[in-house]
Amino acid sequence: MATIGTVPLNRVKLWREPDFANAELMVASYRTHRFPPHAHDEYAIGVIERGAQAYLDGRGRRAIMPQGTICVINPGSIHEGRPAIDGGWDYRMAYIPTRDFVRLVGAHDPGLKGELHFPDVVIDDVETMRLLLAAHRCSQSTDASQLEKSSRLTVAVFQLIDRHCVGAKGVRHPLAIPIAVRRARDYIDAHVTANPSLDQLTEVAGISAFHLLREFKRVIGIAPHAYLIQRRVALAKGLLLRGMPLRQVAIEVGYCDQSHLSREFCKFYGVPPGTARQ
C-alpha cells in the first residue's frame, strides 16, 4: 500500500481500496493548512474526527464541519477549506470515482441510475457517522480481510445514500456550461501534461481571451490556470499511489522538476508528496 506522508502540523496518509468502487481513502490531520479553491472528480465522503473545518463553496455558501459530523462534497463542486478553530481538524475521507459510484448504486437500485446528488455538505447523523468511521478504520487495518473491508464500506455508504442522497430529478443545475467553456475545459483535460497556452484555449473555444477567462471563472469557479494545476496534482497523486518514483511523476505530469510538483502538491494537501512512502 503506497502512502503519502507526514510533516509537522499537517499529516496525510492515502491508500486505495480497489475492492470497493476503486475508492481512494485518506486520513489527515490539519492544524494550519488552508485548501485553495478546487473541485474533485469524485464523490468526497468523510467524517470529522476532531476539531472543525470551515467550508466555503464557489457560490459563497459557508458551513462549519464540526467533530462527529459527516461531510459530503459532490463531484465538480468548487470549494475551499481551512481550520474553523485553533488546532484545526482531523478527518477521514473516501473519494469514490463518479462512474464507479453510479455503477455501484445502480446495481443496488436501478431506479437511481444517472447523476446522484447530496444536497447537504454537513450531515448530522450519528448512526451513519459511526458506520462510516468504523468502515474507514477497518480499511486501514492490516488485520482485516479484503472481504470485511469492502463489506463494511458498502454497508456504511449505502446507508448514507438511502438517508441523504437524491437522484437526478432532485438536482438543480443553476449554470449550464457554455460550449466555449466546455471546449476549453475539455482541452485542458486532454492536454494536462502539455502545458496548454491561452492562445490554444481561445482558438479551441472560439472566443476572445478576455471573454474566455471571465466565463471560465464564472462557470467553473476557478481560472483556467488554476484548473490546470488542480488536474496535474490529481494526476500526480494517482501516479504516486501506484508506486511511481517522485522524479518520474514530475516528468509524467509536465513539471520541469520535482520541486515544482512538491510546491503545488503541498498547496492542495498540506504535505509534500515525497515526505514519506511505505
From TrEMBL:
Lineage, broadest ranks: Bacteria, Pseudomonadati, Pseudomonadota, Betaproteobacteria, Burkholderiales
Domain HTH araC/xylS-type stretches: 182-278
GO molecular function: DNA-binding transcription factor activity; sequence-specific DNA binding
Keywords from the UniProt entry: DNA-binding, Transcription, Transcription regulation
Protein name, per record: Bacillibactin transport regulator
Gene3D superfamilies, per database record: Homeodomain-like (1.10.10.60)
Source superkingdom: Bacteria
Pfam families: AraC_binding, HTH_18
Gene: btr_3
PANTHER family, sorted: HTH-TYPE TRANSCRIPTIONAL ACTIVATOR RHAS-RELATED, TRANSCRIPTIONAL REGULATORY PROTEIN
Signal peptide: none
